[in-house]
């Protein structure tokens, strides 16, 4: 029944030597083996690869290694215990700190893959890290499960994201919901006020920005105004100025 999860061929180490350049901070990580894992020549095993940041990229985001990894380890002990759902399998857990970086996240994925091909990736959660690793996973034939990836570009499964599974909704669905709300109340003029980083910061687009893009694409044709701020640096006076400017152009404001 669970044969599809068993990684028989990956017992052969793909790379005998450590991947060059993967010993730097943020890429190294440890494999967490259960007792008896020293000998992989007997029985079947499954390898989990956990790709998450050690530090949250956003305030109040608890999807980090220190909170997720212990839960997966606890679940692993339960399902592999006598009478458990996977009692005949052994589970190996390896993890890397992605730093929410498309560079270090991808290096971490390659480091795990070269040591021994994993059966599944849990994470990453940051869109700019998901994109390259999901493409590699599609080529490697490895499922990637994430609670991130809300950007509607990830809905295009072929050819790049065939093995990507998102355990949450997406901005496209949010945009369709907003479209129906606008139609119901006959809103034709609206404004958007949202958090956006300075382009010179090199941090890409914020989640708010990507959500607003999906809303605009779904609604289409309506008259819109936008105002942006950096929530890390904006002051009370900045918010007041934005609101006073927007109130002259729209009555409905989405934040």
From TrEMBL:
Keywords: Membrane, Transmembrane, Transmembrane helix. Pfam families: ANF_receptor. InterPro entries: ANF_lig-bd_rcpt, ANP_Clearance_Receptor, Peripla_BP_I. One of its GO terms (molecular function) is peptide hormone binding. It comes from the Eukaryota. Residues 69-253 form the Receptor ligand binding region domain. GO terms for biological process: signal transduction. Coiled coil: none annotated. Its main location: membrane. The keyword Manganese does not apply. Gene3D superfamilies: 3.40.50.2300. It is found in: Membrane. PANTHER family: ATRIAL NATRIURETIC PEPTIDE RECEPTOR 3 ISOFORM X1, NATRIURETIC PEPTIDE RECEPTOR 3-RELATED. This is Receptor ligand binding region domain-containing protein. SUPFAM superfamilies: Periplasmic binding protein-like I (SSF53822). GO terms for cellular component: membrane.
């Amino acid at each position: 029944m669970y044969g599809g999860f068993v990684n028989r061929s990956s017992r052969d180490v793909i790379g005998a030597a450590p991947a060059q350049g993967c010993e730097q901070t943020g890429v190294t990580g440890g494999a967490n083996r259960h007792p008896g894992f020293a000998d992989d020549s007997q029985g079947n095993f499954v390898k989990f690869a956990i790709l998450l940041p050690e530090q949250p990229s956003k305030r109040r985001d608890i999807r980090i290694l220190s909170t997720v990894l212990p839960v997966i380890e606890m679940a692993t002990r339960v399902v592999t215990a006598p009478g458990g759902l996977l009692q005949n399998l052994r589970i190996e857990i390896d993890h890397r700190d992605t730093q929410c970086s498309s560079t270090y996240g991808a290096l971490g994925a390659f480091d795990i893959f070269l040591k021994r091909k994993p059966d599944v990736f849990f994470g990453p959660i940051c869109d700019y890290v998901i994109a390259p690793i999901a493409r590699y996973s599609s080529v490697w034939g490895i499922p990637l499960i994430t609670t991130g990836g809300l950007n509607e570009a990830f809905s295009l499964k072929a050819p790049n994201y065939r093995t990507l599974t998102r355990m949450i909704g997406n901005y496209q669905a949010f945009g369709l919901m907003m479209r129906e709300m606008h139609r119901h109340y006959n809103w034709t003029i609206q404004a958007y006020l949202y958090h956006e980083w300075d382009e010179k910061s090199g941090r890409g687009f914020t989640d708010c920005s990507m959500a607003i893009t999906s809303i605009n694409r779904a609604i289409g044709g309506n008259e819109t105004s936008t105002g942006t701020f950096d929530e890390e640096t904006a002051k009370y006076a900045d918010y007041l100025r934005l609101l006073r400017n927007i109130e002259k152009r729209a009555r409905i404001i989405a934040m």
